Amino acid sequence: xxxxxxxxxxxxxxxxxxxxxxxxxxxxVLLSEVVVFFPYIAHERRNWLDNHIEDASIATxxxxxxxxxxxxxxxxxxxxDAVAIRMAGPDATAVTLGDPTQPVVDIDPRNxxxxxxxxxxxxxxxxxxxxxxxxxxxxxFDPSFEAVIFLKERSLTKALRSFASEFAVPAVLIAGVTGxxxxxxxxxxxxxxxxxLTGSIAAFRADPERTTPLDPGNVSxxxxxxxxxxxxxxxxxQHELRAALWRNARLAxxxxxxxxxxxxxxxxxxxxxxxxxxxxxxPDPKVQRAGETLAQAVDRATDxxxxxxxxxxxxxxxxxxxxxxxxxxxxxxxxxxxxxxxxLRLVNTVDVTVLVHADxxxxxxxxxxxxxxxxxxxxxxxxxxxxxxxxxxxxxxxxDGPGLPDxxxxxxxxxxxxxMRRGGxxxxxxxxxxxxxxxxxxxxxxxxxxxxxxxxxxxxLATPPASSDAVEPRAxxxxxxxxxxxxx
Length: 488
Description:
Elements: H1 3-6, H2 17-62, H3 70-80, E1 84-88, E2 94-97, E3 104-107, H4 114-126, E4 132-138, E5 146-152, H5 153-206, H6 226-280, H7 285-312, E6 322-325, H8 326-334, E7 345-348, E8 355-358, H9 360-377, E9 381-389, E10 392-399, H10 406-410, H11 428-438, E11 442-449, E12 452-460, E13 484-486
Helix pairs in contact: 2-3, 2-4, 2-5, 4-5, 5-6, 6-7, 8-9, 9-11
């Protein structure tokens, strides 16, 4: 693997999790402040109107009962920032200052609700219009008088924009500080721990045998958060994976050695096998028994080498999937148990039309191993039953043997451990399990005891091929499902 692939991928700051969370937090705070800004701008507009109404009312009180002087009126209007003022009392008395001639917009603050005030404040904030606002309300000092004040809308716009500018500066500052705090918190509590995890994963993927597993205590600043738990699990997985790789490396070495030893051992055992055959032809019964014993010893040695070589081979065997007739394949595999127990009976209830999606050669090895195990255990009858669970098929292989001891059950599918036969390698069921996994299926021990043992296999069903040539035909007539077939 190249050195470039061993380095963890670096994420640009704007595309990192912390950077995106900073942006998201900043936008969220700004949005919240915008929502708060709407009632604030309406409140600011109402305060501006109230202040001008009070100033206008004070201006009219200043000239009450005095002679109206033009210069004095202009000065009062300037101080109150009004174009014209009119105060009308209940006795029809009125005081008027100024004479407006521009277009006016009528406003009565007493009849405005919050939404109306917000809408008018935003309009005044956004649009710079040369209009007069005719504000009609009560005199704040004498409610019996009605006040009509003419104000310049541009003055209101200027005041609201000044308020908006003062509001925006701390709003942006608060959003930036809040986003920065979130950024650094996420960077320290999440992003850096995740970077350590991804860096360890990338380095371990590049060179698992030489890379030091992750130290879970150095992942996060917190002791028991989710990232720390993930770091501990990753470290445990890396330790287990390294141990498995070392075991596989040793098995691969054993496989290479066994392959060489197997070749030499066949040559060494060939003269012994020929000698055993000659001894079996001798008329002396004792010599014949010695020949049989020698032949069996040679067969066991050859079988041990073959099974060990098959299991030590790196990876599962290549599979050639095709529709396979299940019933004839089981019958064919049962023939391999004939030399072990001639009286073994096979009850095959699988429908002859059932097809499974499998490699015929490797699936034959599965059935042959299971049936040989049953024969070696002393079973007299093996019953095969199938249950359709489309798109899969469950196949039960049940024998009436003595059952499996508890010690064997605990190590059933482990190589070199799960054999109950003296001198057995324990590789048969381990190979069966690997072949079933390679087929995408499963094998499990359903039950075992004094009445027998049942294994359940799961296989994928296959659709019938367009031509019957795709399925290897059975030799001879097909017996009816459920018929007992005794091995000759």
